[in-house]
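Suppose a colleague, Dr. K., hands you the sequence of a protein chain of 250 amino acids and asks what its three-dimensional shape might be. Before reaching for any lab equipment, you can write down a predicted structure in token form. Begin with the sequence itself:
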Amino acid sequence: MAVVFEKPKSLLDVSMHYCPGCTHGIIHRLICEVIDEMNIEGDTIGVCPVGCSVMAYDYFGCDMIEAAHGRAPAVATGVKRAKPDNFVFTYQGDGDIAAIGTAEIVHAAARGENITVVFVNNTTYGMTGGQMAPTTLPGQITQTTPYGRDVKKQGYPIRLVEMLATLDGTSLAQRVSVDSVPHIRDAKKAIRKGFDIQKDKNGFSIIEVLSTCPTNWGMSPIKAIERLQTEMIPYYPLGVYKDITAKEDK
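The predicted structure, expressed as tokens, is then:
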């Protein structure tokens, strides 16, 4: 019988703590597939802060560092400068990267730090019970916006990749999704490009991945995927917002 799929070697063979239907597992797998393809498991260092991915060190076979909430880009900066020949990536949620960690991510991008950032956006604080996050959609019901996010009171969602794309230090700013097979394939290509840019010492890359949170959204996994497609993607359009390698290819 032909083998059509194998678990990535750099993804450890353990049960994950994520809720049923959560797409963190898919994103973990994509990162590990890239690590395997590039044969860099022994040269890769990941940084995860507080959030649903707080225990990601149990799942990745590469070296992992736990950072304080929002501080993963700062920790990754120190690691990369100390070990410039290693591949360094951060894995961050929207409540982490776009709230308490806004200063860290903006200045890491402004400095053009040669790291790869994987930003998982599920429009909620998943680990702490489903409060409003910086990316919560207008009108979205959360634990702290029971009547829906009112932009007149809570402001508008932050479109992080568009903002970071304006900085000279950013080499790649791209938004992808994991709601369908074609989009999952595109997500993997984007993550690989982020690692390739780091390999070529071309600076800072951020890949935003639109994700689901069935538990805190109060939906079945199928309904959560439908919400991602009908509500999140229209507000957060998929695409490449900056790619310095595109100029080199022409």
